[in-house]
Task: structure prediction
Amino acid sequence: MRAIRPSALTGRDQGDGTAAQPTRYGRRGGWLRQTGWHLVLSVLSVCFTIPLLWMLSSALKENKEIFTVPVQWLPAVFRWENFVSVLSYPGYPFLQFFSNSVFYAGSVTVATVLSCALVGYGFARLRFPGRDILFGVTLATMMIPYVVTFIPTFLLFKQLGVLGGYIPLIAPALFGEAFFIFMMRQFFRGVPKELDDAARVDGAGEFRIFWQIMLPLVRPALVVMAVFTFVWTWHDFFRPLIYLQDPDKFPLSLGLFTFRGRRLTEWHLMMAAATLMTAPLVILFAVAQKYFIQGMKMFGIKG
Amino acid sequence: MGRLRRRRLSPLGRRQAAAGLLFVAPWLLALVVFHGYPIVAATYLSFTDYTVLTPPEWVGTDNYVKMWGDSAVWRAARNSLFYALLSVPIGLVLSLVLALLLNRPVRGIGIHRTLFYMPSVVPPVAGTIVFLLLLEPRSGLLNTVIEVTGLDGPAWFLDPQWSKWGLIVLSLWGVGAATLIFLAGLQEIPASLLEAASIDGAGAWGRFRHVTLPLLTPVILFNLVIGVIYSFQVFDAAMVVGGTTGEPGGSTLMYMVLIYRSAFSYFDMGYASAQALVLFLAILAVTAAIFGTTRRWVYEEA
Result:
């Protein structure tokens, strides 16, 4: 097991991810070989991209236009009104679904970032009895899959009488999440000790040290945590499925699922809804790509 | 008493200890409420008959005995195993190949890397619905393309023989995440080692086989374990494709869907808990078995 290098997040060259130093084996290839590799990569890239392009193209077609032979790659007429139809579809308030998703993913993100930074800092920088044992237990909880805990957790929230709303979906995030606590601890440990010691000597309280000195120093880690939490919560289908009943409270995942269940044949509208659900994440990915790539590297290095 | 207290905390130390406990307090609560308690409760519930309306009633190992004779359990276990045994190895090889391709110093790699990873940010429900369209038997895009070659494409999600293959193809669309993890591992391999191998006369295959692959084994282990854990618990895609009955004909009834069905369609919480515990133990056993073999194939830095 290798430790995460906190510098991996702040280093400038990490963002582009191309092989840092081209080895001479690569350079030896002539232009023919180069073109060959480009071709192979391009074909594969196209394979990975076609589903998304097909989704978008179908979202802008007439329903029967989707299944024409030979394949019609672009819509004859770009039917942007499909999106309007979806957003105003009777019985399926997609605009509401969308804002529910924003609310759900946004709240969980804020809660997770705050709680995990706080707890991670406690484990990294403050001495208290039993700290190392507790941290060991924290790592052990990462081994417990959700499948074991979800039934009792559901029953617990049922007992509390909060089923059918967002409390069971958001509240757990306020208390931290093992992996991100681990990640934050690693980052806080990478900050030079002199900084908070100096502040402590100056009489600053522990919370102030955390909030004003330490937190700004690990900003990149906070952003990584935020983007991944947002994406995963936006994806989340299982928990909304077990906790929510009222369609007005559905996030997009559940709204789209029920729509597909009842409106099987309206492919163009299904694709428009899928596009609506996917677009915000693709945009987020485009804007914050650096953080996604760095995050994936960290997840791997953790192993 | 005095022996236990190894060193007395200074006033400053005591204040820090109090602050420390305060910082981790939320998580301590979570450990008890969202981890410790549910595990104990799930274990207990698995030995009870509990249909929510009346209090749980102790039935001993009845649920486990019932599982043994329940054809739905076997079907779900078979489906999940089939899915895991195919999607994990194929995904592993594909992501490794993609990472090797991306690790070449060719211009424009960043774009390819972006495109490989992009499907991983697509919501599973949306992605699955897109694949339902792509794999539509009669005139879906994939079969239309296959027909150009003169072959007949399978009916995918409408054919019990092929529906799991549809799910596997869908899972392969998401190998971008594992690819990036492999790529990070590849970039950690010191160029000096590859050069040394080259000087010793190793060709491209020799360098891969004797330098790159051994050094990459820890990452392979990581992706393998994560892959197994995830694929055993596949839910979203299977639920969108086949619902709680695993259409067509129970062929997409994955084990996780079975648990969901027992708990939330039949409200048989005791039975569902037993099923969940068995899955947990199966995941534990498989991961333990994998770790048991690591001595033989995972390279450890001295």
